[in-house]
Every structure is written in C-alpha cells, then in structure tokens.
Amino acid sequence: MKPAAKSYSAKPEDFPLSAREWFLVDAEGKTLGRIACKIADVLRGKNKPTFTPHVDTGAFVIVINAEKVSLSGKKLDQKIYYRHTGYIGHLKSVSARDLLATKPEEIILKAVKGMLPHNKLADQMIKKLKIFAGNEHPHAAQNPAPLEL
C-alpha cells in the first residue's frame, strides 16, 4: 500500500513581503464585483497551490483607472454606502454615483474588503492593495504583471 502524501501547511516566515509578486489590474470598463472577487483571491493567495487559510500567502495588487469601473444594473443610483461618525444620530449615507465621483478608490476598497475574511489577517491583506483613480501609479519599479480577469 502506498503511503499518503504529506500535507503542506505554509508558515509566515516562508512568505516575506519582499518576495511577493506584484499584479496590475486596469479597472476601466470592468464590473466592480467581478474584479473585486479576483483581487480578493489574489490578496489571500488562493490562486497559488501554497494557499493556507491562516497565513497571508497573497501578492500585492495595484488597481488603476478606479474612476472608470462600471456597476451593473441600477446600482449607481440604488446602492447606498453608510458610515457612522460616532455621534448619536449621525449616520451618513452616500450613493455609489456620488462616491465614484468623489472617492473612486473607496468604492473598490469597500468591495474588496467585504470579500476578505473578517479578522486580523484581512487587515494585513488589505494593506497590499494599492488603488489609484487615474492611469499613473508610483510602483513601476516593482514590475507588476498584468492580472487577467
């Protein structure tokens, strides 16, 4: 009888931040939910065979043209984002159209953050996401590879 293969469990010291890959995503004309799902998978490391749920094995992701992302259906007017100031009765709301016009980076950040696990590990993962409204980004020295969606 053949012995069972050993399971691989990644350790944090096996994945230093300096050795991570960099990916570039152009959000122009892409649907928000579809790119957010793919970005969340890459940030977690689910696209690699070394994925381990309790270790951050993911790569860095750069998103450009965040202002040109599209939302399907009537979400631009019907989707509402809420935040609370901390004072009694100060629940603020903004529509997706207004948020996309004022802070386009925020709309992608909220979509990706909602698709990551809700724990301390997600705080480490979201720091590897770099979002820019325009076409320019300061991470050209990392030679990011284009991420196919």
Protein traits:
149 residues, alpha/beta, Ribosomal Protein L13p, Chain: A, 4-stranded parallel beta sheet, two-stranded antiparallel sheet, 5 helices, globular
Would you give an account of this structure?
- Helices cover 28% and strands 17% of the residues.
- It is of the alpha/beta class and 149 residues long.
- The chain has a domain of 84 residues: Ribosomal Protein L13p, Chain: A (Alpha-Beta Complex), CATH 3.90.1180.
- The strands form two sheets. It has a four-stranded parallel sheet, covered by helices on one side. Strands 3-4 form a two-stranded antiparallel ribbon.
- The N and C termini lie far apart (43 Å).
- The model has no long low-confidence stretch (mean pLDDT 94).
List the helices and strands and how they pair.
Layout: E1 22-26, H1 32-44, E2 60-64, H2 75-78, E3 80-84, E4 91-95, H3 96-102, H4 104-114, H5 120-126, E5 129-131, E6 145-146
Parallel strand pairs: 1-2, 1-6, 2-5
Antiparallel strand pairs: 3-4
Named CATH topology of one domain = Ribosomal Protein L13p, Chain: A
Structural class: alpha/beta
The helix tally amounts to 5
Low-confidence stretches: none
What is the number of beta strands?
A: 6
The general outline is globular
What is the strand arrangement across the widest sheet?
A: 5-2-1-6
Overall mean pLDDT score?
Answer: 94
Give the CATH superfamily of one domain: Ribosomal protein L13
Secondary-structure arrangement, i.e. CATH architecture of one domain: Alpha-Beta Complex
